[in-house]
């Protein structure tokens, strides 16, 4: 038997451990790719729970490949409530904050009464004096009683005036058929903040940033679509086996060799437009609109400026051919035609 964080379990092949009979994953959201890989080989269980639930609070039965991944039902000695902002039970299928209650709950935080009072609150569904723990996690309940995990309630960033749940972005990217693991973060590597996505492809796959972006555009509203995409062989891990977000590499800033200056009128015009849109960036013919932080909204301004320079592009042109070199080639081909 073994208990591992999902990220750690994805770094090893099931065939390396023929004696393993039961694998419990906990500590992070369990991606479908992990179930596809491990469920045919072992008895795979997905567990959930904050330390304050001493230690797991819910657990699934054995998972099967292709099933929707849940966090199961409460363990004996614990109850789970999905509540709205008024601490009322959320209807089946609706997302609310997950609260843990029951005799298995911890007493509180040692010598931290203020923090204990904030997180361990009165339980309106229990006996007088009973308490429940506010997990800070989002969940929903299926009609069969199984719980679905939807990320952290405080895993939220603000970008261009919009509040974005990073867990929703990661879940959408994780649904790409060639993605095994996905992480989204807000970065400021190029000065202005931008949403960056990191994907670990399934074995043998190599999705391009354009393909990942197209998938996200079909799944999310524009303001939630990451500007840059990086594929990694593996996600960096902290000592406890969870994703180390602080160790993720800066996206789109790998050194490029042989960067050439613009040589055609179209390349020169496009470089000037890029310099206007991305003032703090170093622009070359190989510069990519989306790697520099371009968004669908900014693409509209780019297309307008290009039209003023006598270059006609569609939004599809920008998505499929985001570099100055590729866009200039399109302009040249249309001019010749």
Task: Tell me what the structure shows.
With 337 residues, the chain is α+β, with helices and mostly antiparallel strands. The protein folds into three domains: 2-152, 3-Layer(aba) Sandwich (Rossmann fold), CATH 3.40.50; 157-247, GMP Synthetase, Chain A, domain 3 (2-Layer Sandwich); 265-336, ACP-like (Non-ribosomal Peptide Synthetase Peptidyl Carrier Protein, Chain A). The protein is built from nine helices and 15 strands. It has helices at 6-9, 32-38, 113-119, 166-174, 209-219, 265-277, 296-308, 315-320, 324-336; strands at residues 2-4, 22-25, 43-48, 58-59, 73-74, 79-83, 96-101, 120-122, 131-141, 147-152, 156-159, 162-165, 179-187, 194-201, 228-231. Strands 1-2-3-4-5 form a five-stranded mixed beta sheet. Strands 6, 7, 8, 9 and 10 form a five-stranded antiparallel beta sheet that branches. A three-stranded mixed beta sheet has the order 13-14-15. Helix 2 links the parallel strand 2 (22-25) and strand 3. It is elongated and about 75 Å long. The termini are far apart. The model is unreliable at 253-258 (pLDDT under 50).
Identify the notable features of this structure and list them briefly:
5-stranded antiparallel sheet, Non-ribosomal Peptide Synthetase Peptidyl Carrier Protein, Chain A, 23% strand, elongated, GMP Synthetase, Chain A, domain 3, 337 residues, Rossmann fold, alpha+beta, 9 helices
